[in-house]
Structures are given as C-alpha cells and as structure tokens.
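Need Aminoglycoside phosphotransferase family protein's 3D structure for a figure. Predict it.
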Amino acid sequence: MEELVRVPPEVRERFAVRFGASVVDWCDELPSLVGGLAGHWGLEVVPAGGGGTSRVFRCVRGDEAVWLKLTPEPAIAREEAEALDHWAATPSVVPLLAADLSAGALLLADVRPGTTLRRLGWNLPEVAALLRDLRVPAAPGAGSALRPLADRVGFVFDLAERRGRPVSAARRAAALELAATGPVALVHGDLHPSNVLAGPGGRPVAIDPRPSWGDPDFDAVDWVLTGPGTPERRIADLAALVPGLSPDRLLAWCRALDGL
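Structure prediction for Aminoglycoside phosphotransferase family protein:
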C-alpha cells in the first residue's frame, strides 16, 4: 500500500506552494496516516488522485467503493464536513460517510457513473436543478467552522495573482462589495463542471466544496461564463429556473470574476 499512497514530487511542490514548506512532514507521514485510517474504517486502498489541497484514495470497503480524502490542513476538512452535513438530505451532493477531523480525513461515498460534466457536457436546466438543490435552508450558527464568502473571494484573487493572471483592483473591490452586501446562505464555493459528477439516473452530484456563508449566486458564475450563448441570456434563463437568483447580482459577479 505504501507505494500507492506515497506523495509524488510534483504534488509535494504544489502542496508546498499552497501550505508552506512544512507540508513535507505531512507528505512523509501520509502512508502511516492512511494505513491507520484504513484499518479503523476497514478499507482496502487503491489508486490515488486529488487536487490542490488534498489527496484522494479510491478504496473498497466490503462490497462497496468509497473515497478517502485527506488534507494537510484539518480546517479544510472541518469546513467541508460541515457543509456536507447541511446538504445530507439532498442526493445532489456527495454523501459524507465518516470523518476524522483531527486527521483532516473524510470518507465519502462513491458516485456512479461518476463522469464529470466537463467531459459529458451539460445544459442549463440540469444546472438550475443542482443550484436549487444546493440552496438548502441553512444559516451560520455559533459553532460554525465556515468563514464568510469574502474570505473565499479574496483567496480566488490571490490565487490568480500567484498564477500570473492580471488582477484588477477595481474588480477585486467589486467582488468583495458583492460578498459583503448580499444574502447569506450556504455556498459551495468551487462549483464548476469538473466538480460535478453524473450520478444515478444522470442526476448531477456536486463534490469538493470550498464552502462559506454568503451569496449563493456565487455558485452560478462558472456556468454563466462557460456555457453557450451570451452571459446575459444564460443569466436570464437561470433566473427563470432558480427561485431567489438575482440577475443583476449574478451579472455583477460574472463581471468581477471573469478570467480568474
């Protein structure tokens, strides 16, 4: 198993940019951590993947496939777990099966067939259905681990700068103003076609939230900026299908975030 869970050099470099040089210790200890969790949860570990903040391992538990997700920063796991708990009643979000938050570990259900919408293609009615399902009645409580959307917005602009993309101070200010003045609900925070899988019956299922509290219209931005037709037409179509979506605010979000 150790070969399967060892962190390759290119991932170590990416994690060092994101988390700092000390993440090398976490990478070295990951095989031991995965081994302990596999024993605790009864997992057989198979190949790994992951994004900019985590390592993800496909596992077998009994006769079912599951996914073990680990991050060097336990707060990231805590935020994702809280959001998945809020969305537990909707089949449009991947289910959380178990968590060890002190270890930054989540155990997630498998989604089948699991092809991303980026590969499959998508249409606005199915995206609108997903956006409606994500708008669950939820509000920040006293013990919430989730931060305001303004924090996520600031991170998006900072990341764009680190990647060498031009960042306008006026657009950053406009986005932060939107985050500070809008409605407050649970926001996925990273909802784009690569983070939505085809689930049973073709239902779109969201994965990998970077959740926060803020304007849920933020989650519609990528779908407006990447779909067919003009952004204004797509916004009008979504507004007709998603109760509570503000066309004016969504257009302002798109203008502030386009190209990031």
